[in-house]
Amino acid sequence: MHLSRRDFAKLSALGLAAQLAPQLNSSLGAQTMPASPDSGKVGYCLIGLGRISTLFAGGIQGTTNSRVTALVSGHPEKAAQWAEKYGVPRESIYNYENMDAIRDNKAVQAVYIGLPNSMHAEYTIRSAKAGKHVLCEKPMASTVPEAESMIAACDKAGVKLMIAYRCHYETTNLRAVQLIRNGALGKVQSIQSAFGFSCDPSDWRLKKALAGGGPLFDVGIYCLNACRYLTGEEPEHIAAYSSTDAGDPRFREVEENVAWVMRFPSGVVATCNTTYGSNMDGYFRVYGTKGWLEVNPAFSYDGLRLTAAYRQDDGKYIQLDEPNAEKIPYHFKLEANHFSQCVLENKTPKTTGEEGIRDMRYIREIYRSAGVKNGISEA
Amino acid sequence: MHLSRRDFAKLSALGLAAQLAPQLNSSLGAQTMPASPDSGKVGYCLIGLGRISTLFAGGIQGTTNSRVTALVSGHPEKAAQWAEKYGVPRESIYNYENMDAIRDNKAVQAVYIGLPNSMHAEYTIRSAKAGKHVLCEKPMASTVPEAESMIAACDKAGVKLMIAYRCHYETTNLRAVQLIRNGALGKVQSIQSAFGFSCDPSDWRLKKALAGGGPLFDVGIYCLNACRYLTGEEPEHIAAYSSTDAGDPRFREVEENVAWVMRFPSGVVATCNTTYGSNMDGYFRVYGTKGWLEVNPAFSYDGLRLTAAYRQDDGKYIQLDEPNAEKIPYHFKLEANHFSQCVLENKTPKTTGEEGIRDMRYIREIYRSAGVKNGISEA
Q1: Mean pLDDT of B252-263
Q2: Is residue B188 within 8 Å of B176, Cβ to Cβ?
Q3: Structural domain count of chain B
Q4: Chain B residue with Cα closest to A284
Q5: Are residues B313 and B187 located together in one domain of the fold?
Q6: Residue B331, helix vs strand vs coil
Q7: Of A85, A376, B182, B239, which is least packed with CB atoms within 10 Å of its CB?
Q8: Same domain, B177 and B239
Q9: What are the residues whose beta carbons fall under 8 Å from the beta carbon of A359, sequence distance 6 or more?
Q10: pLDDT at B28
Q11: A303-341 pLDDT, tens per residue?
């Protein structure tokens, strides 16, 4: 068996490289195919080099199945710095005009889209057309139709689409879900969750054209999504109110506060709060017939902590206090690891585009209920 | 000046006794009017001798302006024990049939109604007709029309009506209100509050005919009322959901869970939760442009704790952690003290019947919104 580097990259994308790696390396021999530590790793092209991409790149470096192989940026100098840091060859630096050429870059199996929300759809679709798997930040898009077009494009291209809901991969959040699924809390009855922050006046999040919506879009989505993964259910009723300080120049384009209540089919009722007007702890608290659990903070990049108290069927009273000692960017490591596994083993990601579009629809419903006209385009 | 005991009691009810006490005692002389430590104290008839009345009686004992002077109970033996404990003469023990005779008991200026909710209206009205001031437990009544009839009866009789919203008198709750009013948090934007407990199957609270409603009526009202005293505003929009485990025999007559969201005129949005299905910390958390404060627990009889963090206009970052060392039943002491002051000084109580009926109307709105048919009679 003789394989070129290009052949190997193809196998890698097909998820066979990891499986075949030992025999490939042996048959290729040290000269034609050096036993590189990158063998079998999914190569990512990072699209957008902002803060979130820094975290994701750091996450990738913690994995054994992922690596940064290309960059897309509008700032050549910044891209050059990144290229040096991550060992990306000069020819694998793209800009927003020519990024479609990643199609021909065999070191790229997937893209990570860390752009402002309104750009998610365009770059997901262009990446899919280039034949690359797509890991796209949340919220998935600015509108539901955009999200639909992203799913359609990835389906048509036969590439995977994962929305970067990092809490689905993060250990403390998973521990909360596990406790609930194992029945520790008995029948779950209610959830309280909030997440917000005081937004800097210069933040792109305050620009409707870039952000798509306000705090509900950016951080409230964590509460919404948490209620869904904690219950394993979809909300069947949503009611919401919103308010915006008309005197605060930050909020000319997006809303300031949103509070909403949801009812799930099993009877779980949930209340959520989000804001760009004050620093609001990101947390959730779940109550059931046997006890409660809280994760606070729940959505931060590290320092998460689970506390719980519940009575077991044998009468024993359990109290948990589980701080998570993992450090930033471990969320991103776990997330990257999952998507790369899906790529390598041809599996469906846990948080697909369908998961993302559900939140988009609920967000639309929250904005509708609250009468927020600039919350999300109805189109 | 010569005054009989009856004259003195009249003065006491008019709020003049305290003021005149020294000269009265001197003019009456030791023989006709002994200088009793009870001079000038408001005499209370306790109606219903359950747990809450025990707490209130303990509260009275901590005051210098209140005393227990009569009892109404359906259990003669229990009443006799209470009479001995509080120094109530045998002739001042009444039952539910003959309690109207308190009219002629000059040692009684006020009643405290610690009965199940559905009995509040009847005993408030009978007490008013007997010419006694009324301190009635919350929730004020089972229905809005009942509450209206209570206010009308007290107005007609020219007696004061106070609803026993103890948190309006409790120091940590007042401290939270003070911080907010003083602008420590800046512009308040949102509130989260919850209160619930796992209700014992034998509790009268589960009987619609006695309780009038479920957890919203009994404990959710604390969250509702807190949102009102924290903002100093009335909610202009309310939306709610409720759920009840049909398989739980406790919830045949009242609801199990209620979650609701409110919007206040200034733009404050609030989310609240209540339940009889699990033990849910009673707390509130308030967010503003300059910081946040939390009282947790907020509604317990003691052990309250305020924490807060906010940035002052001079840039200084303030962090507060203020546990309340006062012990049960200090809430009731402060509450009794306030009502007695109002009686003695002919002032209007802070928490009038109008305050109580507002909550009744909002509760009705929450039940309507949530579609809880047995929540509160619409009549």
Answers
A1: 96
A2: no
A3: 2
A4: B192
A5: yes
A6: helix
A7: B182
A8: yes
A9: A138, A139, A140, A221, A224, A225, A228
A10: 38
A11: 999 999 999 999 999 999 999 999 999 999 999 999 999
β-bridge partners, B260 = B240, B272
Residue B376 lies in a domain: no
Question: Which residues numbered 251-290 in A keep a CB inside 8 Å of some CB on B?
Answer: 256-263, 267-273, 275, 277-281, 287-290
What pLDDT, on a 0 to 100 scale, did the predictor assign at position A38?
A: 73
Looking at the fold, whether A161 and A189 belong to one and the same domain comes out as no
* Cis-peptide into B329, omega within 30 deg: yes
CA A250 distance to own-chain centroid: 26
Q: Which residues of A are catalytic?
A: 138, 222
Q: What is the pLDDT of residues B346-361, one digit of tens each?
A: 999 999 999 999 999 9
Q: Are A50 and A97 contained in the same domain? A: yes
For residues A110 and A134, give the distance between their C-alpha atoms in angstroms, rounded to a whole number.
6
Tell me: the pLDDT tens digits for A170-217?
999 999 999 999 999 999 999 999 999 999 999 999 999 999 999 999
Q: Of B145, B166, B187, which residue constitutes the final position of a domain? A: B166
Could you say which of B190, B239, B245 has the minimum Cβ distance to residue A275?
B190
Percent residues over pLDDT 70 in chain A: 89
Ranges assigned E (strand) in B137-203:
161-163, 188-196
Do residues A223 and A148 both lie within one domain?
no
The CATH number that applies at residue A288 is: 3.30.360.10
Give the residue numbers of B annotated as catalytic, written as ranges: 138, 222
Helix-, strand-, coil-residue percentages of chain B, each rounded to 5: 40, 20, 35
CA proximity to B34, closest of B21, B45, B43, B19: B21
pLDDT tens by residue, A106-164: 999 999 999 999 999 999 999 999 999 999 999 999 999 999 999 999 999 999 999 99
Question: In which band, very low, low, confident or very high, does the pLDDT at B38 lie, cut at 50, 70 and 90?
Answer: confident
Q: Taking CB atoms and an 8 Å cutoff, what residues of chain A touch B368? A: none
Question: Half-sphere exposure of residue A239, counting CA atoms within 13 Å on the CB side?
Answer: 19
Of B243, B267, B289, the CB nearest to A263: B243
All residues of chain A having their beta carbon less than 8 Å from the beta carbon of residue B369 are: 239
Any idea what the Cα angle at residue A195 is, between residues A376 and A339, rounded to 5°?
A: 75
Contact A261 B242 (CB under 8 A): no
Residue B285 has pLDDT above 70, yes or no: yes
Write the single-letter amino acid at B326. E
Domain of B161: which CATH number?
3.40.50.720
Q: Answer with the one of B133, B150, B166 that is the final residue of a domain.
A: B166
CA distances from B260 to A216, A261, B365 (A): 18, 6, 10
- pTM tops 0.90, yes or no: no
What are the beta bridge partners of residue B136? B113, B163
CB atoms within 10 A of CB B319: 9
State the residue range of the domain holding A211: 171-326+353-370
Q: Is A237 exposed, middle or buried (0-12, 13-18, 19+ CB in 10 A)?
A: middle
Do A283 and A208 have their domain in common?
A: yes
Whether residues B136 and B22 share a domain: the answer is yes
Q: Let me know whether A52 and A159 are in one domain.
A: yes
* Residues 6 or more apart whose Cβ sits within 8 Å of residue B233: B264, B265, B266, B268
CB neighbour burial string for B95-105, b if at least 16 within 10 angstroms, e if fewer: ebeebeebeeb
In chain A, residues with a C-beta closer than 8 Å to the C-beta of B237 are 241
Question: How many residues are listed for chain B in this entry?
Answer: 379
